[in-house]
Amino acid sequence: QMLDSIHEFYLGTGKKIGIKAAGGIADADTALKYYMLVKEVLGEEWLSPELFRIGASRLAENVFREL
């Protein structure tokens, strides 16, 4: 729903606002789901560090371990 609201705001104003996904994102699969949702709802232009961030320190630790 938040992504839909951001999209509607952009359509109404022409202003791009970003999103920071946080809380409960501890594995690469969950992070990838957020990535795909942002891409599908908002488009590839939102997949930049200025507009899309994932705030999850556990994610970095877990991805490092997986590598």
Q: What is the number of helices?
A: 3
Describe the strand arrangement of the main beta sheet, using strand numbers. 1-2
Tell me the β content. 5-15%
**First-residue to last-residue Cα separation:** 32 Å
- Specify the biggest β-sheet: 2 strands, parallel
| Element string (H = helix, E = strand) | HEHEH
pLDDT averaged residue by residue: 91
The rounded Rg comes to: 13 Å
Structural class: mainly alpha
Helix content: 40-55%
How many individual β-strands? 2
What is the subunit arrangement here? single chain
Q: What coarse outline follows from CA principal-axis ratios?
A: elongated
Uncertain segments are none
How is this fold's topology laid out?
Elements: H1 2-13, E1 19-22, H2 28-41, E2 52-55, H3 57-66
Parallel strand pairs: 1-2
Structure, described:
The structure is a single chain. The chain is mostly helical and 67 residues long. It has 3 helices and 2 strands, in the order H-E-H-E-H. The protein has helices at 2-13, 28-41, 57-66, and strands at residues 19-22, 52-55. It is elongated, with a radius of gyration of 13 Å.
Features:
67 residues, mainly alpha, 3 helices, 2 strands, 54% helix, 12% strand
Short description:
The chain is mainly alpha-helical.
